[in-house]
From TrEMBL:
InterPro entries: ArsR-like_HTH, HTH_ArsR_DNA-bd_dom, Metal_resp_trans_reg, WH-like_DNA-bd_sf, WH_DNA-bd_sf. This is Metalloregulator ArsR/SmtB family transcription factor. Keywords: DNA-binding, Transcription, Transcription regulation. NCBIfam families: HTH_metalloreg (NF033788). The keyword DNA-binding applies. SUPFAM superfamilies: Winged helix' DNA-binding domain. GO terms for molecular function: DNA binding; DNA-binding transcription factor activity.
Length: 127
């Protein structure tokens, strides 16, 4: 049962499970990088593998998982399969999170690397 707190109703268990599944897929730095790249523009698997520095089969497997979850779509152009993010909300969430962490790292010490003790680190992010 949804409870109202602070003017907002709690989401249903189904919505929470779907969100957790989407966030779980984006918890992989490789898949997050792929979604980030596709948020900048569509690409085929070869272009994505070159951009994210992954092996072609691994990038293809990540794309399959992202497609099954509905986070990425594709279309055929001749012999190529072109991938894209068709959900502006997914793009917004990824850009917001990555942008915030980038800004935090840039502010921390000017080197682009987080300063020692410069706030909490998120598991799965960073070197």
């Amino acid at each position: 049962m949804a409870t109202e707190v602070g003017g907002f109703d709690d989401p249903s268990a189904e919505v929470l499970a779907e969100a957790a599944s989407a966030f779980g897929l984006l918890a992989s730095s490789a898949r997050l990088h792929i979604v980030w790249a596709l948020a900048q523009g569509e690409s085929d698997v070869t272009g994505l593998a070159e951009r994210v520095g992954g092996a072609l089969p691994a990038v293809s497997q990540h794309l399959t998982k992202l497609k099954l979850a509905g986070l990425v779509r594709s279309r055929r152009e001749g012999r190529r399969q072109v991938y894209f993010v068709d959900d502006p909300d997914v793009v917004t969430v990824v850009r917001l999170m990555v942008g915030q962490l980038t800004d935090r790292a840039d502010r921390s010490d000017g080197s682009g690397l987080p300063a020692q003790g410069a706030g909490p680190r998120l598991r799965g992010f960073g070197a």
